[in-house]
User: What shape does this take?
Amino acid sequence: MSQYVSRLRSRPHGQFPGPSRLRLPGVPRRPRRVAMLSVHTSPLHQPGTGDAGGMNVYIVELARKLAALNIEVEIFTRATTGTLPPAVELAPGVLVRHVDAGPYEGLAKEELPAQLCAFTHGVMQAWAGHRPGYYDLVHSHYWLSGHVGWLAAERWGVPLVHAMHTMAKVKNAALAVGDTPEPAARVIGETQIVRAADRLIANTAEESDELVRHYEADPGKVAVVHPGVNLERFRPLAPGGADADDGGVAASRAAARARLGLPQDAVIPLFAGRIQPLKAPDILLRATAALLDEDPSLRSRLVVPVVGGPSGSGLTKPEGLQKLAARLGIADLVQFRPPVGQERLADWYRAASVLVMPSYSESFGLVAIEAQACGTPVVAAAVGGLPVAVRDGISGFLVAGHDPADYARALRRFVADPELSARMGHEAARHAQSFGWDTAAAATGDVYTAAMQERRRHLRSLHG
Amino acid sequence: MSQYVSRLRSRPHGQFPGPSRLRLPGVPRRPRRVAMLSVHTSPLHQPGTGDAGGMNVYIVELARKLAALNIEVEIFTRATTGTLPPAVELAPGVLVRHVDAGPYEGLAKEELPAQLCAFTHGVMQAWAGHRPGYYDLVHSHYWLSGHVGWLAAERWGVPLVHAMHTMAKVKNAALAVGDTPEPAARVIGETQIVRAADRLIANTAEESDELVRHYEADPGKVAVVHPGVNLERFRPLAPGGADADDGGVAASRAAARARLGLPQDAVIPLFAGRIQPLKAPDILLRATAALLDEDPSLRSRLVVPVVGGPSGSGLTKPEGLQKLAARLGIADLVQFRPPVGQERLADWYRAASVLVMPSYSESFGLVAIEAQACGTPVVAAAVGGLPVAVRDGISGFLVAGHDPADYARALRRFVADPELSARMGHEAARHAQSFGWDTAAAATGDVYTAAMQERRRHLRSLHG
Assistant: This one.
């Protein structure tokens, strides 16, 4: 049983309602069933492709753990293929509902605003077959879903909890060269949803500040819930080596390298994520070139994997990155790999000496936690949630700004000290333990409960 | 009392429900109150500017006449200024409701799809204060409103009647040089609303065909209702001259020219409408130049007024048209006038020898009826509804294609026969009488009644 439930049970003046759904007066009620909205990206999609990224992982893991807390989750997403049934069980207590709204293929994210009424209509149809009060709460992800959630929550008379994941004003304030600014329509849409939501879930304190600063969010409505990582999947995988000083990290690394066919003695700085200007994989390439400029003998000891596909909205194409590698004279060192499944991704994390995240903006930076959970330190730009995700000097290094020379300097420490990667990786794996999805789901459940409680209070005050 | 009501009263097996709202079984019920949706353009705006055109006039006149038939109308439109109250009475029985959805200014039509959920929310708020069944029917105009109507009709359990006004696929099939094709999002949105609506109102039989051909509309759902013109406003205005052979048209023309300071003996071909490639005002300029090429002596007898402003979506700027006039050597003949009010516009129609409409596409061509109602013949491209609006050889001339020489040939007949304009104008005014709003509103009311009847039948069949 999760810590969330036990915490509720131990409340001095409360009692957990239990499976009988008996409602005692004054006891905060958790939702039984949540309608989760993810219009533009399906939880069934492969992260690292197209528009599917950290948000997909977030929704899947959160839903699983909420279900484990007896909160059923139905995830509504736009149908992008005719081959899947209208409803698919993702896990016990987690249903994915495919909503018909526009053609399966060829609809870009920019064209989705025109489909929000159609999507809302599909959500209403799915709901119409149920008794009133079927959904206790709406939790929407990204502003497009937020607008659907606005209407759904109003119609069902339930609270709306919204998570932005990324924000146009934040993105636009830290735009990389070659990236297109987010349109005004999104800024307006986000502003409206901030006003309409009963609760906003921010990934980090910084995101919470941004909601207040950029979107005039009522600070009392914003709750910070650090997203979790799947700690069962992302962990060092050492054949009986967990007793070592480094928690088995070195053995885990060696095994992963063997599985991936990577050299055991190489320094391997890894980039993992969508290839787009915002994620700045080019900075890792330039930093590698800078390392080689100083010490050409490193050429035989460096492997630089770039794991990920192009993003729908990004301007940097993998070809462009390949050309850059050639221009920098490091084409032989850089390995471009298409997006991989979560299991395989964990192996790439384990195999790397260090994960490099030179991003211009990250609301949380889930991959930083995933890599650390696998026992891999992280060199990251000190933006967004990364200063929370990475313990500077302990589980990795934070770099101010985006000068490739600064990233080269951080990488040089791993070159100079072959043990550093395993030592820091051990700390990284420990640090990552506090970012599990049990914790995240329990905290999210608390936000739900608070939202429902406040709504009931509000209704009571209306009716005298 | 309107002809519609008396027609209902004379039904052998029916009885008009009357103001007591008594419902007799088997009697088709008309709606008492209609929610009319016009998201992107307000009925209070000046036609001929920005996005306001024939559709604004259509909605205002239809609403007035529906109200006269005891069908109350509430028109929902997006608030584009903070200076107007949330609800404004446009006429007895006609309320305009301003819905907050996005900023008042700076929101282009292309950005409106992202505001449809917000708009729907505003409509629901206005409705929430009323008893259930407050609106009997939703009538949406243009696809953007259609998507809101889809949700509103579903929520209220009432029929949705939709009017396209213009269609992306039709526009794209007849694109003028320099005009931007309509986006896929609109095509998809239109296709959805065609499927969702209980009834589609087409302006012409051709529009009805297009709905079936391009959008696979169920022919049984499409009703053709010719839009009306305001025959009280648009009519020949002759000081006691209605007894003349030409119905007073010549006297009306002379008086209007005096009011506008135009020469009495000039041949005056008029362009009236938004200045955009689709409306092709440039063809009138080129035809004028062709006339002069043949007979330079006409220069002293020609005046070419262009009345209208630039369109938000059009690429042809008035400056471009002015440059074209200069290049053609007719800058001295062309008078550019900004959009004018309906009263003043009627004077421009009356003053003209002929209205010229070289449009590439017109779903109905309301101005052709307005000009004829004022006693002015029309030379028009044989596209869209214009072959219905103009009786070829009687109330004007239809031209196949867009060759300026063909338009010059038609204009030459008015030059050669100074009486032709008044003779044809007299026929034109008679022809226009069948396009009054009384008729249009009564026919629209019939569509409402049919939609409500079918929905009741459908509900009865569901409940045994």
The first helix of chain A runs from residue 3 to 9.
